[in-house]
Amino acid sequence: MTHQLISSDILPVATPEGVEVRLARDAAEVEASQRLRYRVFFQEMGAKASAEAQASGLDRDAYDPVCKHLLALADGEVVGTYRLIDRTAAAKVGAFYSQAEFDISPLLSLPGEILELGRSCIDSRWRNRGTLQLLWQGLAGYIIEHDIGLLFGCASLPGTDPQALAAQLSYLAENHLAPTDLRARALPACAAGAVSADPAADPRRVLQSLPPLLKGYLRAGAMIGSGAVVDHDFNTTDVLVVLPTAAITARYQRRYEGKAA
């Protein structure tokens, strides 16, 4: 499963001309986002596609009809997307997407609205800081408008050998573990086994070796749940990221209030 977020390290940058960010307006735009996801996840990143996905050229599942789709569009073409799942959408399917891998009971017990981010990707032609900034601004606007208190979702490390990722997994557990009241846990049935990292590893180098998106989460104030899950279909090892929205909305609050005025 490939998943989400951007961070303060992409600011300030020039935004690309001709790109707008908004929610999908119709089924055709949702399908365009699914086609982009298929290109990135299956054709580019090597995830295993079902026969149905191969035939359709779409990455889709039961969540797509009930969730919101945040899009970046360039001259009408969908070039970036985030999938937004709130409590109402999750209830229609029966669970949040990440509940297939993690026990998120502490998050579910929180008051107010929480939002699961997933299926985030950007077309390779537009994969730059400007496009990321615009998507992040659009997400911040959605968070403010809907009074979202917490973001969460799976973040992926490339590969399916936890021991090969021992340095990164150990670094995350030792330096960014979420407090108990926000700590999701990998389900025992699918949790990766224990790993043994080199105690002499340089934490700074390990941090730099993390995928850019995951580093972005951490710089924005994100924390990590307990344990990891190997996802063979997507050729990744997943951790659960939790991010209180106060860490990211402050920089955008004044901007959106000004536009509203």
Description:
This protein is α+β, with helices and mostly antiparallel strands and 261 residues long. It has one domain: Aminopeptidase. It is 36% helix and 23% strand. Helix 5 crosses helix 9. The longest helix is centred in the N-terminal third of the chain and has 18 residues. The N terminus is likely disordered.
Q: CATH top level?
A: Alpha Beta
Q: Tell me the domain tally.
A: 1
- The radius of gyration computed from the alpha-carbon positions, rounded to a whole number of angstroms, is 18 Å
Global outline: globular
The number of distinct helices, counting runs of at least 4 residues, comes to 9
Protein topology:
Blueprint (H helix, E strand, L loop, with lengths): L18 E5 L3 H18 L6 H6 L11 E7 L2 E9 L1 H7 L8 E2 L1 H4 L4 E10 L6 H18 L1 E11 L7 H10 L9 E2 L16 H7 L2 H8 L3 E2 L4 E3 L4 E9 L1 H15 L1
Parallel strand pairs: 5-6
Antiparallel strand pairs: 1-2, 2-3, 3-5, 4-7, 6-10, 8-10, 9-10
What's this model, at a glance?
The protein has 261 residues and is of the alpha+beta class. It is 36% helix and 23% strand.
Task: Please supply descriptive tags for the structure shown above.
261 residues; alpha+beta; Aminopeptidase; two-stranded antiparallel sheet; 9 helices; 10 strands; disordered N terminus
